[in-house]
Amino acid sequence: MKKSFFFICFTFFSCSLIVPAVFGQAGRPPATKTPGPANRSSHAGLQPDGNKPAWWKEAIVYQIYPRSFKDHDGDGIGDLKGIISKLDYLKSLGITAVWLNPIYSSPNDDNGYDISDYRNIMKEFGTMEDFNVLLKGLHERHIRFVMDLVVNHSSDEHEWFRQSRSSRDNPYRNYYHWWNAERGKPPYRYSLFDVNHDAWRYDSLTDAYYLHYFSRKQPDLNWENPALRKEIYGIMRFWADKGVDGFRLDAFQFVAKDTTWPKFPDGFEKDFFQYYAIGPHLHDYLREMYGQIFSHYPVMSVAEGAGRNMQDAHDLVDADRKELNLAYAFDGVSVPRPEGYKLSEFKEVFSRWDSAFADKGWISIFLANHDQARMVSRFGNDSPPFRELSSKMLTTFILTMRGTPFYYNGDELGMTNIRFDKIEDYRDMATLNDYQYQKNKGADMAAYMDFIRFSARDNGRTPFQWDSSPQAGFTAGEPWIKVNPNYPVLNAAAQEKDPASPLNYFRKMVALRKKNPVFVYGRYLDLDRENPVVYAYTREYRGQKMLVLLNFSATDAKTAIPVNMANAKLILSNYKDVFPGKRIEAPGGDRAGARIMLRPYEAIIYKL
Ligand code: GLC
User: Fold this and answer.
1) Active site (catalytic) residues
2) Which tens digits make up the pLDDT trace of 450-489?
3) Closest by alpha carbon to 483, among 387, 418, 408, 410?
4) How far apart are CA 197 and CA 160, in angstroms?
5) Residue 446 carries which DSSP code?
6) Do 344 and 286 have their domain in common?
7) Whose CA is closest to atom 9 on ligand 1?
8) 64 and 168 share a domain?
9) Domain hosting residue 165, numbered range
């Protein structure tokens, strides 16, 4: 039974998304104030490992879930004015780009991932005027803006779909995928969010089925139709002309389908990804998009998901192919399980991706997003003695690896899973539909509740904890989803005052990465691969070498590494106090190498 729970949550959100980010022209701040055109980096002229420097490689992207960040008008839903009121907070973090989950008009079946008007702002979030103010405010603070672009599907309330379903010969009919019922039932397609897992929905109006890989209210767009593709490029131009700096392409690897609709083998849904990702003509569409958009606007591009294998991932982002900029692969976030995970697997995944992209292409580094439960609850230890330490340790990892960090809002405070006891507290349609599905098939619902307490997306969507006032200072009203009851002790205001807080540690790590290109471009080497609790690696670039040591356990640990520590300089630690006693044995290295002691969840960085 448990297995099927894993299947839902880990297969998709672990293996499927990529994001594009670009730099437009119009509406962007003047050259002196902006971070510069698409490929200009602060380290221009260096040629690391065959990779040309680019701003989006050096970027530190901070992801904001707008619904839960800050509510300005008191309706309990975060909004653009709320984000505007926190612009100085964003600046204080030092991050250089913001990715916002969708803010377009939407009936919110899937919190904005079901768009009914791509050229308008969701009414709960504000107006286009608010958007303009937000973009200007970010640019004035030298922060770039990455727009979420959801074009695998639209809302069923989009005008295109209203037209499309109205008659078989409507000009918009082929904007979506239809199967006329006189042909019998269409070949089974798995739906990720449907309560029956069935991706074909019968519509009596025209006696036909339409396709929806996600919910019934998210019909899939037909990318084979050139008229549809033209509309999408028009939408991208609209936002690029406004000055957005990048696009994250939601679920993009699914857009291309084999529209001869072959029957897939029985049980294909257990590995549906192999059948759905990178379908026919996907690369043609991306090259067309490049020609239409990315070659004209200096924007960055990242798609959600990186294909079925490394070859797919490279094919999406190798610069000479002129498709996208960076890959966003899910293997890393698939590692944790409710019963725990092995550090060896974590290391293996990140080492594998690093080596596949060591000379060509570029990846994202992240441990959380809006589709995941909280980073510290999944990868660290959110019990009171270790919450802060382990979240700082994970932050150290994200900001010292090669690739562009995508850091999820609230993780800088070490926000934790809320672990709802009652299904009524959940808001995510994906969880609610899956709950119903499991119930219908007679699953062990107590076990299911345990499972979602660990994995449900709503764990990562509770309101940002600003201070200890009611509702954590998120809203003056009733929040759309409950605030985590730990907000009186875990909040930004309290952490501002503590120089050793996760928040201030995040700022320090951001500053360190920005100052040291070795963390962006440097060669990565895993040093103590067999160590079950310590992750030890070096980054090396142009004569500079950094050693990163991370203890992933709640007990003291030791690493033995082939490194001469005689002249090593400690530059950062996540502990307030210095190590008591002798930390390093055989600093010059003997046959066993240098032996270094670490405290529980300790993270340290040495300059070698
Ligand atoms: C992507 C989004 C997720 C959404 C899904 C359908 O995976 O990240 O939040 O539910 O696409 O749009």
Assistant:
1) 250, 304
2) 999 999 999 999 999 999 999 999 999 999 999 999 999 9
3) 418
4) 25
5) H
6) yes
7) 371
8) no
9) 159-211
